[in-house]
Amino acid sequence: MPELSIAIVGGGATGKSSITIRHIENKFNTEQFYDPTIEDSYMKEEIVDGETFFVDILDTAGQEEFYSLRDVYMRQRDGFILVYDVTNRKSLDEIRIFVEQVKRAKNTETIPFVLVGNKCDLTSERQVSNTQGKNLAESLQIKHFFETSAKTGQNINECFEEIIRETNSMLRKKSIEKKKSSTTSVKKQRKCCIM
């Protein structure tokens, strides 16, 4: 069974933990108390397109005081769900910073990302339009964008399915490239000289 590691990344209070809990346990915490996450990890067996995956989901800290932890988990993860809060314009602007940090930590441009605008059920408090979210995804060359609600469950499972597809596809490509390069190096080693 393929193993994938996913991180939920975004600013503080964007709903990363709520999204994770909604997906893992199909629950929403209705308490108004906000307890910032330092880091929580969950294991879940997922079936996407008829294939079973063992997925390690990391719910990360969005607060500045945990900035130093970011490079470590970013290097270790295969795919990333980027979360902003549609009721907080600043959280949308922070997404670019997270993308740059991930690219720098992983030292590559080829990273599976899904962009998520959370709290879309709070229509009267909205500061970021659906179009602005789509435009950001486009400008960052992120193929998949969802507006979600951890409260109602809207698009929660869909965004996880998409990051699993993207991540699995990328890991397969890397595996094929690795096999090709090792085959090429074996062929180069087999040269012989006849005297």
Automatic annotation (TrEMBL):
Gene3D superfamilies: P-loop containing nucleotide triphosphate hydrolases. One of its GO terms (biological process) is signal transduction. Pfam families: Ras. It comes from the Eukaryota. GO terms for cellular component: membrane. Keywords: GTP-binding, Nucleotide-binding. GO terms for molecular function: GTP binding; GTPase activity. NCBIfam families: small_GTP. This is Ras family small GTPase.
